[in-house]
Structures are given as C-alpha cells and as structure tokens.
Write a structure and sequence with these properties.
With 288 residues, the protein is mainly beta. It has two domains: 160 residues; 107 residues, Sandwich (Immunoglobulin-like). Helix content is 2%, strand content 41%. The chain contains one helix and 19 strands. It has a five-stranded mixed β-sheet with strand order 11-19-18-14-16, with no helix packed on it. The protein has a four-stranded antiparallel β-sheet with strand order 10-12-17-15, with no helix packed on it. It has a three-stranded antiparallel β-sheet with strand order 2-3-7, with no helix packed on it. The longest helix has 5 residues. The protein is globular. The chain starts with 18 loop residues before the first strand and ends in a 5-residue tail after the last strand.
Length: 288
C-alpha cells in the first residue's frame, strides 16, 4: 500500500515506457498494514521501494528520514538496498491510538516521499502468513533459532567474518529446483556502448504488458540472509544469502568507510524467521 501525495515527477510516477535505472532515482516508503500484538497493543508494518537497480541509498535518521508525530527515530533503516523490501520493520503503537496517523518521510535528492499509516480496518494484516492457506506441515512448523558470532570491532582494510548457528525442525520440507523470478524484474540493466559509440544512458526499457512468471516455487531450505540496517555506507557481502550447512552459515562483509554499523542476520526456513541485530564499530586504517 503506497500512501503518498500525487507528484508530477519521474520518481513518484515512473515514465510510461517503464525504464529501469541503475542509479539516480529515489525511494518510496510503504505502509503495508497493521496487526494486533498478544498484549493488546498494535504494530504498523513498513517497507520500501528503492527505485534503483544498483545504487544503495543511505539516508541518516533526521530531517530526511523521520517519523511524525513523536520520535523521529522508530527503528527504521538508514541504508536502503535496491528494489522492493516488504514488511522490513514495524512500529508498536498503544491500543488507544484511535484515528491518528503515523507518517514516515524519506527525502532523496530533494524529493520527499511519505508512507501514511492509520488503523483503517481493511488494512489489518497477518504479518507472518499473509493470509496463505496453511497445510499440515505449516501447522506443525516452528521458527528456526538463530545465534550470531561476530566481532564487535574491525580495523580497515580487514574484512569481517559473519558466522551464524541455526537450529530448525526441518519444516517445511524443501522443494527441488531453483526459484523462478518474475521476467526481467530483478535483472540490473547491462547495456554497454561499443568502443566507437557515445555512452548509453543508464536505463533500459522493458516491454510493457509482459506477463510474469511466478516467484519462488515453495521452500528452498534453511537460509541465512545478511544485511546492513544502519551505517554511513553500504556493505558488501560475498554471499548475502547463505544456505545453512551442518547448522552453520558463514559469510564475509567488506566495509568501504569507518563508522558504526548495525547489521542483521535473518534465518528463514521458507515460512518462518528468526532475526538478530548486532553492532560493529569499524575503525579506519592504522596510521604508521
């Protein structure tokens, strides 16, 4: 659910030719619905769309990345990875919230986009199952359990080894075959000019009206996803998604800038997840 005022610009209203852009585009925060918590309070769920296919956006909490009313910092990300990210975080609100609105605003390249959240009854969601029909395996399934072993400090140019230990009940049963992606949806533009031709603009048109072929074909087994949540710059992972083998998943993170980073590890059995957040202080190279 997008909640944003109409704007006559390329960021809010993509052109009718559906051009894809490596970089230079903005970001749309998204309100995805609300749900009751066991204690009677409520949570509002948010995601975002980074319209770039290659450029990660960094927007610190403050005037350009804030919630209103109340505290500007509600745990939202400051590092926005490319493309769509669904139900990335939630904001807990009191049970007597009533008809008030909670607004998440993000400004990129001078353009402010907003997600406006309120307790409209039609927007109540199931944040875990999303209304999917649950079979016998699903009814028995328990979420994985995740433990993370990561150093809390790092000195550049060293890399950081990320180690996760995961236990799970083996449900749901993984299905064979790789997942299928929607045609052309997550493929970065790759057109390059010939040696004697001028530079091609960094965009690629897609054919309008082309049908989509379904997404992932069921559970793919136990996986761990690594991502940067907050920090002064993007982080490069040699493997952002790692299959769990013998209860472990290991990856390497490379940092371009010193600073304080908040990283997340997310174990996923194909249906349920467990997530851990940890902070890493990255120091600049030693001076000799």
């Amino acid at each position: 659910m997008l909640a944003t005022p109409y704007r006559a610009n390329a960021q809010a209203n993509p052109d009718p030719l559906s051009f894809k852009f490596n970089s230079g585009q903005g970001l749309q925060p998204v309100f995805e619905g609300w749900a009751y918590n066991p204690d009677g309070s409520l949570s509002m769920y948010f995601g975002y769309l980074n319209r770039n296919y290659l450029e990660t956006l960094v927007v610190p909490v403050g005037p350009d990345n804030k919630f209103e009313p109340g505290a500007a910092d509600r745990g939202q990300p400051t590092v926005f990875n490319t493309r769509i990210h669904r139900k990335e975080f939630s904001v807990k609100i009191p049970k007597d919230w009533g008809n008030k609105e909670l607004v998440w605003s993000v400004t990129v390249r001078g353009v402010t986009e907003k997600a406006i959240a309120w307790l409209q009854p039609e927007w109540q969601i199931d944040p875990i199952y999303g209304g999917r029909t649950r079979n016998a395996e699903s009814l028995k399934n328990k979420p994985p359990s995740l433990a993370v072993n990561v150093p809390s400090t790092l000195t550049l140019p060293n890399t950081l080894t990320l180690a996760a230990e995961v236990t799970d009940d083996g449900l749901p049963t993984p299905r064979k075959g790789p997942p299928r992606r929607a045609v052309g949806q997550e493929t970065p533009p790759t057109l390059k000019p010939l040696a004697d031709q001028p530079e091609i603009p960094v965009n690629v048109p897609s054919v309008a009206g082309r049908g989509r072929q379904g997404g992932a074909q069921g559970p793919q087994g136990l996986l761990v996803n690594w991502l940067v949540w907050r920090g002064p710059a993007a982080v490069t992972f040699d493997l952002a998604t790692v299959p769990v083998k013998d209860g472990r998943a290991v990856a390497t993170a490379t940092f371009a800038k010193p600073g304080t980073y908040v990283l997340r590890a997310r174990a996923n059995d194909g249906e349920l997840t467990d997530e851990k957040e940890f902070t890493v202080m990255v120091n600049g190279p030693s001076q000799h």
